[in-house]
Amino acid sequence: MDKSHTSRRRRSPRLWLAGGWLLLALLAAIFAPLVAPQDPLAQDLMLERLPPFWLDGAEPGYWLGTDSLGRDLLSRLIFGGRIAFIVAFAAAIAACLVGSTLGLIAGYFGGWADRIVSRVVDIWMAFPPVLFAILLVAVLGTGLGSVILAIAIIDWTRFCRVIRAEAMGQSRMDYVENARIAGYGRVGIMLREVLPNVVPSIVALLSLEMGIAVIVEAILSFVNLSISTDDPTWGGIIAEGRLSIHQAWWVLVFPLVTLILTVLSFSQFGEALKTRFDPVLR
User: Fold this and answer.
1) Closest CA relative to residue 250, chosen from 50, 56, 32, 60
2) What is the 8-class DSSP label of residue 115?
3) What is the pTM of this model?
C-alpha cells in the first residue's frame, strides 16, 4: 500500500464527521442542564405545537418548536440523549466483555470450549432479538438497569461470533507458532499475541453495538417499556410525535433525525477506527 493511499485512509472524513457529531451530542447530554434552553418537563398549553424558529408562528427561545403539551422539543432531545448514551455505553461494554472473552477463548483454544460456546450462541440467536428484549424487560421490570441488562444479555453473541472467527484465524498465523516455539504458554500467547490483533475488530463492534443499543432503547421507549419516570427519551418523543404528525411534524421528524444520525455515527466511527488502527492495514 503506497503512502498516499495510507494518508488518505488516515484523513478519512468518516472519523471526523462521525466523531464530531457523537462528541457534540455527548457533551450536550452531559451538560444538559446548562445548554438546554428550557425545562424539558415544563408544560404550557398556551405554547402547544409551536413551530421551529424559521416558520411563521415561532416563539423566541423555542428553537425546534414544542409538542402537544407545550414542552420545548430541543430541551427534551438534549435530555433524552442522556438516557441514550448511558444505555449505549453500559450495555455495549457489558456485551463486549462477555462476548469477546468467550469468543477469544473458543476461537483460540478450540475443542470442547469451542463446541460449548458455539452451541450456546446458536441457541441464543434462535430468539428474535427485539422480541427477546421486550420479553426480558417485561420480566425484569421497567427501568434503566433492566434495559441495559436486557440488551447485554441479547447482544453478547454478536461479539462472540466475530471474535471467535478472528481468534481462530489469528491462531493459525506464523507469529503464534513462533511464540509457542519460544516457550510462551497458551494463555500468554492468547493475551499477548492474539488479543492485540483482534482489538480493532472489538473496537468496531463496540461502536456498532452502541448504535444498536440506542435503537433498542428507543424501541423499548416507544412501547413504554424503558425508564418508568417522566424523563424524556428519544423513543418516547417519537411515540408522542407519531400521534400529532399532521399538526406538528417537527415533533416526529427531529427525534428521528437525531436517532438516525447518532446510530450512523456510531457505525461509521467504529469502521473508521478499525481501518485506521488495524495492524494489517498499517
Assistant:
1) 50
2) H
3) 0.87
